[in-house]
Amino acid sequence: MKRSEEILNIISDKKELDFCDFKSQYYSATKNCDLIKDVVAMANNIDLKDKYLIFGVDNSGVVLGIDVSALPDISSINQLFRDNVEPFINLEWETIRNLENTGFDVAALVISLSNTDYPYMMKKDYSKNGSGLSKGAIYIRKGATNMVVDRMDLDNMYNLKKEIIFEFIDDKLSIKKIKFSNTVERLMLLNLSLVNRSEKDKYIQNAKVKLEIAGTVFECDGKYIENKQYSFAKVPKTLNEESKKIAKEVQLFKTLYVEISEGCIRLIEENSSTTANCTVQLKYDDGRQCMKVKEMNIEVEVGL
């Protein structure tokens, strides 16, 4: 589901939850403490999903609209968090113009599910117009309420981090012809480090990759997770055929082979695109999902 569709569904439900909060207007310059506290609290909720502060909607879910052009640039918002919160929480804007032909615009400040390095906390004292947040303060959102974390909250955060994680090994996204016995497939290659910190084996059931290139988004399916090579004696089993095992307390260095469309390759060639915003989401056998986002350099094999 696209973010805009999810936001529309949230507004239609007219309910504030642990992953969504309605605001009739954006924070004034004197309310930065409230902005920081709201974002930190929501980011520390360990549900693996995008979370939204939605502006232009009141607490009861009534759409009032907002002047999108008057909202601050996302870079200035991110700088506020880079200066005052650790680790850094990456935020994005999602705007919806003329919401369902009402004539109203709304905007959402998005805390993407790639922000999983909790706990997020104040890295220094911060005060503004009489309000203040103390160094080391940690907040969490439960239901529609922000509160100070307790020991169980912290245990849950750290236990989740002990599970399985992955990282990009480098910033290269390669598109190559891969040989499988008597066949050739044109695939995208991403090099990953897979770490299982838990006390039991884990299995990757599904891999999704989203590429944003020159303003166009492509959604792709991960097909194989194997040792990096360009020629295989036989076709390996796909993730749909067999989940990829990550043994307990093991780190693996693997390559994710991704199906890529003709339209995506054509756009890269036509625009001489050399970079892409790449999002990889892995789904495991216990239902957990992990996501990473990174700006990648595109390498296309000559004569592809």
How would you describe what is shown here?
The chain has five helices and 20 strands. By secondary structure, the protein is α+β, with helices and mostly antiparallel strands. It has two domains: 3-160, Methyltransferase, Cobalt-precorrin-4 Transmethylase, Domain 2; 164-300, Immunoglobulin-like (Sandwich). The radius of gyration is 21 Å and the shape is globular.
Summary?
This protein has 304 residues and is α+β, with helices and mostly antiparallel strands. It contains five helices and 20 strands. The radius of gyration is 21 Å and the shape is globular.
Low-confidence stretches: none
Report the top-level CATH class of the largest domain. Answer: Alpha Beta
- Average pLDDT: 90
Number of domains: 2
CATH architecture call of the largest domain: 2-Layer Sandwich
What is the gyration radius calculated from CA atoms? 21 Å
User: Into which percent range does the helicity of residues fall?
Assistant: 10-25%
Instruction: Give the strand content.
Output: 35-45%
| Biggest sheet character | 7 strands, mixed, barrel
CATH fold-type name of the largest domain: Methyltransferase, Cobalt-precorrin-4 Transmethylase, Domain 2
Number of E strands? 20
Number of helices: 5
Return the string of H and E elements. Answer: HEHEHEEEEEEEEHEEEEEEEEHEE
The secondary structure category is alpha+beta
